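Re: weekly structure request thread

Next one in the queue (267 aa):
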Amino acid sequence: MSGHDAGSVLRFEDVQVALGGRPVLQGITLALQPGEVMVLAGRNGAGKTTLLRVATGVLEPDAGTAHACRAGEPERPLSQFSRRELARHVALVPQETSIPFPFRLLEVVLMGRAPHLGLLGFETRHDVALAQAALERLGIGALADRTVLEVSGGERQLAMVARALAQETPVLLLDEPTSNLDVGRRLEVLERVRALAAEGRAVLVVSHDLGLAARFADRIALLSEGRVHAVGAPDEVLRPDLLREVFGVDTEILRTAEGAPVVVPRR
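Done, posted below.
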């Protein structure tokens, strides 16, 4: 796939990153389109979370460039965005978030409005309404006044997704967003993610759950040793030969009633 995909809102071109002298990303070229859900999959250490850190501007590539494009504006390297500008373009739901203080869930979600607040930093009724709507959308509106110390780990994770929704960015990055959720909640969150994509947002998801990825992703990018090993529609990528090369296991591909591929490891 060319790195110069027209209309992409987030693009990595030959991105290379080394950490502690060890190559972690080795020439990643990917482009994320509006309205698309792309899943990054691969073994632990393949570079998935590192790529998200590049996308949020936390890590500067050693070589290559990460670009973003805001609506109606020309594409620019992420290094040319201010922190505030980038926070209006990209929202991240990290895999684990430690919140040691007893903030109410509504307060946590309101933190996502920070890039949009005025100089004095005061939230308006509009900001509060958006935060409450985000909680409702994730099915936890009734917990708005509960503190993060009073809810389950799964409910805290849903609040972090709601915070990213309230940030109102065209790009949403999710690092293992369903890792602390039960099966019902996983489906719920990913259905919300699909709905966001239908509204025009671009969503990049790190996930080890290939079954759910197959059901909800438009494309899957398989990362191996810091490189893109394969990228394409779930049917194109979830093949026994590719999965053996990336994960080192033999698999069988079954089909759901809807026709989605299901990956079953062989003993």
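The first strand starts at residue 10 and ends at 19. Residues 10-265 form a domain with the Rossmann fold fold (CATH 3.40.50.300).
Next request, please.
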